[in-house]
Amino acid sequence: MKKASSKKKAKKKASSKKKVQKKAKKKAQKKAKKKAKKKAQKKAKKKAKKKATKKASPRRERTAPPLFEALKGVLAPLGRKLRVAREDATHYTLDTAVSGPLGQPLCFASLERQADGVRLHFYPVHAHPELLDELPGALRGCLRPPSCFVLTTASPALLRELSGLVRRGYERWHETGWA
Questions:
Q1: pTM: predicted TM-score of the whole model, two decimal places
Q2: Domain 58-176, what fold?
């Protein structure tokens, strides 16, 4: 009988020891979660503070708006032949009057002002890749495949080259019946 009661006591002691260990483990997990949450909140607060104090460089502030307006001037003459889909301080988009395969107008070109310059998405290059063969060297350096030009400066020569490319692109789309 003594052996049975000592076995019961040992089992009871072992189960209470497991319970204590389980409680300690839960407590440690809870503490670790709380610490991780606090760390994440601190990191998010620091990131938000850094983002709020971050300013654009004076060079960017001077170049982006005039560059955007100069490039808009290259596309604007086509605004009479195509439809201006969006025009605001940071975007200028020209669509065709002809509907594409999905029943929506085709986008011809889109300007997007960024902090570091202006992006020109020129879609005739997709349909007529031979336009890239005629691409002058200065413009070729600005091309990011498949059809995005990232421009940070606008020299008169670059604007002339771009104007010629836009004209040739429009002519090709017109021949195809898309414009």
A1: 0.61
A2: Aspartate Aminotransferase, domain 1 (3.90.1150)
